[in-house]
Design goal:
The chain contains 15 helices and 19 strands. The protein is α/β, with parallel strands linked by helices. The protein has a six-stranded parallel β-sheet. Strands 12-16-17-18-19 form a five-stranded antiparallel β-sheet, with helices on both faces. It has a three-stranded parallel β-sheet with strand order 3-2-4, sandwiched between helices. Helix 6 packs across helix 10 and helix 13 crosses helix 15.
Length: 452
């Protein structure tokens, strides 16, 4: 049977070209450049090569690229600290931790530290869970499964109503790609090591996705005539004709299977190039969502960016003045205490003139809020303190990037109180910002310093 090769390299180039144009438009119109950060622990040659490829691909499309290289002897706390720094960096919209990590470092703990708004790899449990819920859109989709679906779409391969078999049930590929196929209205069967009569199950498939991690596992007589075969596997086998002494093969016996299928992805050159391309595609998407409110998420990137611009133009400027003990008695509940640099607690309130306009003091804060009600990324811009970024997570903790000036350490209890009140309100951070600016609530007095 005549078969057609699904060229992942070609499709990846098309995706990168589209992303380059999008990045240029975002920068020209709104001054926003998508940024991605990669954390690499250790000196594994394959991981280092992959990181270089990601960095090169990001440069090709004009994205900001950051990286943090750590020795394999580093502690788990150092890796978590690197993640937190990128969480707090406003120029980084997506964070990727190169796996695997050394045995003494918990992958689950490190990946869990990444803010869901910056989970460019789509590994956060909330993102995976969103795939399983009808009508719920994840903030990011796992890159390799996303690449599989993109290949099928670009080659106009019908998925609705087709029988699809996914061989492999890993959290990284198997389960997400099965859920994505369900979203495309395919009838999906997930196979694994306990599946009985696997060849017979595969023979019934119109679409076969092999992601089991075993070289040439899927044989030619397993595939029915005219099926579409997507080979996700990458395995090394000995080959004396190669300079390296090995060659890469997939989970499918390519030479046998190609005689039976209508479409097939080669290894290498099939799904592999799409993984990095979709990683880059996730970056501006989550970057836009990171800044826009939930209503802008379903709009185009241009509309979402316009929402960001309008929100910034509406930002209020506030002056905070220290209150004496005598003054504090007059304003019960209308002030908050906090510590700067471990000093004594100070109390502040908002001053406005008789016309309701805010005074223009030396220390003026520009307020910009974005995120969700339980997980907020915030930026504070101060004329004399430079730029600081604050993160509020479900745990209620606050992280802040160090400034050149002294005395900018965070008071953790203030962050916990802010997050608690946010959850109690049950509204988005954008709603919180406008509502509490008008009411001059005590929560916003401390939010001025910790959340913007």
């Amino acid at each position: 049977m005549t078969y057609q090769i699904i060229d992942g390299k070609k499709v990846a180039e098309e995706v990168r070209a589209e992303l380059k144009q999008l990045g240029e438009e975002m920068q020209a119109s709104h001054g926003v450049t998508p940024g991605i950060a990669v954390i690499l622990v250790g000196e594994r040659p394959d991981s280092a090569t992959y990181v270089r490829m990601k960095k090169k691909a990001a440069a090709e499309v004009g994205f900001i690229s950051r990286e943090k290289l750590l020795p394999d002897t580093c502690s788990e706390e150092e890796v978590l600290a690197a993640v937190s720094r990128f969480n707090a960096d406003p120029e980084v919209h997506g964070i990727l931790v190169q796996l695997p990590l050394p045995p003494h470092i918990s992958e689950q703990k490190v990946l869990g530290r990444i803010m869901i708004e910056k989970d460019v790899d789509g590994f956060d449990p909330a993102n995976i869970g969103a795939l399983a819920l009808k009508g719920v859109e994840p903030k990011a989709i796992s890159c390799t499964p996303y690449g599989v679906i993109e290949l099928l779409r670009r080659y106009k391969i019908e998925m609705a109503g087709k029988n699809a078999v996914v061989v492999g049930r890993s959290n990284i590929v198997g389960m997400p790609v099965a859920l994505l196929l369900i979203h495309e209205n395919a009838t999906v069967t997930v196979c694994h090591s306990k599946t009985k009569d696997l060849p017979e199950v595969v023979r019934r498939a119109d679409i076969v996705v092999a992601a089991i991690g075993r070289a040439k596992f899927i044989k030619g007589d397993w595939v029915k005539e005219g099926a579409v075969v997507i080979d996700v596997g990458i395995n090394s086998v000995e080959d004396s004709t190669k300079k390296s002494g090995y060659r890469l093969v997939g989970d499918v016996d390519y030479d046998e299977v190609k005689e039976h299928c209508s479409y097939i992805t080669p290894v290498p050159g099939g799904v592999g190039p799409m993984t990095i391309a979709m990683l880059l595609k996730n970056t501006p998407v989550i970057g836009v969502r990171h800044f826009a409110d939930s209503r802008a998420m379903s709009k185009s990137a241009e509309e979402a960016l316009q929402s960001i611009k309008e929100a910034r133009e509406k930002a209020h400027k506030l002056k905070l003045n220290a209150m004496s003990k005598k003054e504090r008695r007059k304003f019960p509940g209308n002030f908050m205490n906090f510590k700067l640099g471990g000093g004594r607690p100070e109390f502040y309130h908002i001053e406005r003139n008789q016309n309701g306009r805010i005074f223009e003091p030396d220390h003026v804060f520009e307020i910009v809020v974005y995120g969700t009600k339980n997980n907020c990324q915030a930026t504070v811009i101060n004329k004399s303190w430079n730029r600081r970024t604050v993160s509020l997570t479900n745990a209620g903790r606050v992280g802040i990037r160090k400034c050149k000036r002294k005395g900018n350490k965070t008071a953790e209890r203030i962050g916990q109180s802010v997050a608690k009140k946010m959850r109690r309100l049950g509204v988005t951070c954008a709603d919180l910002r406008f509502r509490y600016l008008m009411r001059q609530s005590s929560i916003f007095i401390m939010a001025v310093l910790r959340v913007c």
